[in-house]
């Protein structure tokens, strides 16, 4: 069994009727704060690596962020929306599609041309879904609030 399959089974076990009460009651909504906090801890791990050369904290924090992704994927699977494999396939397809110079043999003359192509590909991906961008400002504000809340919980309040 791969490590990612093992992680998925652990999350499923935690959410099972005889699993952990806290894990079992989590939802996409209740996990927002943990997701934001773990992302910030990844940034800290990157800073630690840069300053000290020690990758241990980054490895741990990336694992914690991956756990958040897996939790959301397992919950989505329970709800009948999608699976972790669907998430991985979606991002894999997106990366291949957005990098035709790597995966399709297209040659761009300059960084500017490559960037313009990237933007055009993204624009085509978003066609018909432009309304989704309307949610980003509120999400950024919510994320700021969640970061401030995490700072207080960690004892870093201003």
Topology of helices and strands:
Layout: H1 3-15, H2 21-24, H3 32-52, H4 56-78, H5 84-98, H6 100-103, H7 111-126, H8 136-153
Describe what you observe in this structure:
The chain has helices at 3-15, 21-24, 32-52, 56-78, 84-98, 100-103, 111-126, 136-153. Helix 1 (3-15) crosses helix 4 (56-78), helix 3 (32-52) runs antiparallel to helix 4 and helix 3 (32-52) crosses helix 8 (136-153). The protein has 8 helices and no strands. The mean pLDDT is 95. The chain is mostly helical and 158 residues long. The protein has a domain at 1-82: Helix Hairpins. InterPro entries: MazG-like_dom, NTP-PPase_MazG-like_N, NTP_PyrPHydrolase_MazG. One of its GO terms (molecular function) is nucleoside triphosphate diphosphatase activity. It holds the Pfam family MazG.
Summarize, please.
InterPro entries: MazG-like_dom, NTP-PPase_MazG-like_N, NTP_PyrPHydrolase_MazG. It is built from eight helices and no strands.
Number of beta strands: 0
Oligomer: single chain
Please state the structural category: mainly alpha
Q: Which overall shape is indicated by the principal axes computed on the Cα atoms? A: globular
CATH class of the domain at 1-82: Mainly Alpha
CATH homologous superfamily descriptor of the domain at 1-82: MazG-like
- Number of helices, counting only DSSP H or I runs of 4 residues or more: 8
Mean pLDDT: 95
CATH architecture grouping of the domain at 1-82 = Orthogonal Bundle
Q: Beta-strand level of the residues, as a percent range?
A: under 5%
């Amino acid at each position: 069994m791969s490590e990612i399959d093992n992680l998925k089974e652990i999350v499923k076990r935690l959410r099972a009727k005889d699993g952990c009460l806290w894990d079992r009651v989590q939802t996409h909504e209740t996990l927002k704060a943990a997701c934001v906090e773990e992302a910030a801890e990844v940034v800290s791990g990157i800073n630690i690596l840069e300053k000290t050369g020690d990758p241990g904290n980054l490895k741990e924090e990336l694992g914690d962020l991956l756990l958040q992704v897996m939790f959301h994927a397992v919950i989505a699977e329970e709800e009948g929306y999608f699976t972790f494999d669907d998430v991985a396939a979606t991002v894999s397809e997106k990366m291949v599609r957005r990098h035709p110079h790597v995966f399709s043999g297209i040659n761009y003359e300059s960084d500017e041309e490559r960037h313009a192509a990237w933007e055009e590909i993204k624009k085509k991906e978003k066609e018909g879904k432009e309304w989704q961008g309307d949610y980003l400002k509120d999400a950024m504000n919510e994320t700021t609030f969640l970061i401030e809340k995490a700072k207080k919980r960690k004892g870093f309040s201003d």
